[in-house]
Predict the 3D structure of the following.
Amino acid sequence: MRLRASTSLFRLGTAKDIEERLTFHNTGPAQKPTVLIGHLRGDGYPGANFKEVLYLINVDKVSQSLVLDSQRGKPLVLHPVHLAKDAADKKPEREARFDAATGAFTVPARTAVVYVVR
């Protein structure tokens, strides 16, 4: 789960690491089929830059809102790449939202958003 200059956001070394550290949200019969959500735990992993990484990918033509009870109360912030002056896509910084009190996320249309816990 190393951050490398624009080549890789995360890197897990083994299948066991993936099984233990990667989970998916927004699954099952009530899922929003246009939104993919993955969560990586970096705590204790050699070379990890963040304790947690949560990514949301919305392929829909409209923004989507979801509540993830498991993320309620977490100190999630936008990944630094979204906040950079030269960020290729400014939509995440302008339009993506996370409400820690409720666990609610808003993901702009046709956008990938990454949140981290430092």
